[in-house]
Write a structure and sequence with these properties.
By secondary structure, the chain is mostly helical. The chain is 56% helix and 0% strand. The structure holds zinc ion (ZN). Zinc ion binds next to α6.
């Protein structure tokens, strides 16, 4: 998936789950991290090790595995237990990273969840091709839905049965 789709889905997930705007930003950032193995991705442009990881392992390998998710989760909770970050930071980071992996499972390529084992997984038939019409459609549908959702919640029309998750988001 494209970075914008990952970030949008991460923001929407945090909103629906009742997190605040800060956590939404954290989730969005962490939703971009797995693609640090691509030098031209958002994360790849920031992280200096991007090219080295790409050359050694390729795209969608170590950073798209349960191993990397476990490491990110462990570091996030370690920082929480040290009192450096809050619990919601840790949860948002893990949520963002996880959402990336789930979205990439929807692509025909899939991801090697059990890396270093070379076993690739897809979800729902892997029908969403990166950057092509299906992903663009998913992105724009999510964007329009979220604009409506945020609009309803943020402008005080909260009695539409959508739940209260986004109320805190708009304060
Ligand atoms: Zn990816």
């Amino acid at each position: 998936m494209l970075g914008k789709t990952h970030a949008l889905v991460a923001v929407l997930l945090t909103a629906v789950l009742g997190f605040g705007i800060i956590e939404a930003g954290i989730a969005a950032i962490f939703s971009l991290l797995p693609d640090a193995d691509l030098p031209y991705s958002y994360a790849g442009k920031v992280f200096p090790f991007s090219l080295a990881v790409n050359r050694k392992y390729g795209h969608r390998t170590v950073t798209h595995s349960l191993l990397s998710l476990g490491c990110v989760s462990a570091v996030a909770f370690f920082l929480y237990f040290l009192g450096i970050v809050g619990l919601n930071f840790a949860k948002a980071a893990i949520l963002g990273y996880s959402s990336h992996l789930v979205l990439d499972l929807l692509n025909p390529t899939g991801i090697p969840l059990l890396w270093p084992k070379d076993l690739w997984f897809i979800l729902l038939g892997g029908r969403i091709v990166v950057g092509e019409l299906t992903e663009q459609a998913v992105f724009w549908i999510l964007l329009v839905l979220s604009a409506g959702y945020f609009g309803i919640e943020c402008f005080g029309f909260t009695n539409f049965g959508f739940g209260g998750g986004l109320i805190g988001f708009c304060r």
